[in-house]
Design brief:
By secondary structure, the chain is α/β, with parallel strands linked by helices. It has helices at residues 32-41, 52-59, 77-82, 100-111, 176-185, 189-200; strands at 3-8, 23-28, 46-48, 65-68, 115-121, 132-134, 137-141, 165-166, 169-170. It has a single domain (3-151, 188-200), classed as Rossmann fold, CATH 3.40.50.
Amino acid sequence: MTIRILNLYAGIGGNRKFWDGDIEVTAVENNEEIAKIYQDFFPKDTVIVADAHQYLLEHYKEFDFIWSSPPCPSHSKFRFMTTKMTNPKYSRQIIYPDMSLYQEIVFLKHYFKGKWVVENVNPYYEPLIVPIKLGRHCFWSNFNISNIEVKKDNLIKKHASELKDVNGFNISKISSNIKDLVLRNCVNSELGLHIFRCAFKNKQEILL
């Protein structure tokens, strides 16, 4: 049976790279240039340029599995630290945490009948809903996610122009104005495979 998958805030598809089997993937990405790169990497997937948050609300019933990776900057420890810097060259404006992250967790938990996972960074505050933590990621889901050792990456510390390969993707052709954005949002592909296997390769019941 074909598994219908919704991949929200898809980026270039780091999480999706090693998914296999009889799957039908719809990817939603609001940046048209990044969506084009995703389509080049995964030509068989349906790629939609749209607001992922709204798309979830309108189309969630059409899928068996939903992966959502809402924007993380407003939750990240790194950005929080920059707001405390005195040097105006590096200091960033204080902003509200984007609560759409928790909106989607609550929404999926109560309305979606399939399997789902929401991914984000380890936040600078105590998470409002308790997640599972793997590496620098937090995961909320309705199925068991087993622990796995995640290799530490230094993508954020590296200059984007120095990198030609990320998670096995050749990013040399990505324009410099979005390369940093692509790197920050690229989920470790091995971790994406592990989550996928936890959902579909391991025998388990959906948690209530």
